[in-house]
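Hi support team,

I submitted a single chain yesterday and got back a structure, but I'm not sure I'm reading the token output correctly. Could someone confirm the output below corresponds to the sequence I sent? I've pasted both exactly as they appear in my results page.

Thanks,
R.
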Amino acid sequence: MTTEITDETLMAAGWTVVETTGFLNLVGPLLHRAVDGDHEYAISAQDKHHNRRSLVQGGVLMTLADRASGMIARLVSGRPTLATVQMDVHFIDSGKIGELLIAKPRVVRATRSLVFTTTEVTAGGRVVATASGVFKILKDNS
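Hi R., thanks for writing in. Yes, this is the structure output for that exact sequence:
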């Protein structure tokens, strides 16, 4: 059983809305907060996120993992533009509509041209997906 997620409860828990455009604007809103210096990103699973089994579509989990990983890679690299060159995702459990999907990314290693990340996506305290990503640091928005 899930409890209703309201804007008030999210804001009280320290979440803020990340300004987005394009595809993520359709999927979101995307939320962000920092807890003890660690960044977390979230999407509240809504009816628009359901698959044929009325659970959260896997693509939503992948999108959240990719964006969270990219945001932390961007933060650590200090560069404004990166591109995902590889993302491996493992689906562990199902997310349910009404749950808050929380991605907790971290940088494993950063070089001059690549950033390696891992991300864990949870829902209701359960791990629903894990992801490993590689991000290319781009020059001049190329």
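A quick pointer for reading it: The domain at 7-137 is CATH 3.10.129.10 (Thiol Ester Dehydrase; Chain A). Let us know if anything else looks off.

Best,
Support desk
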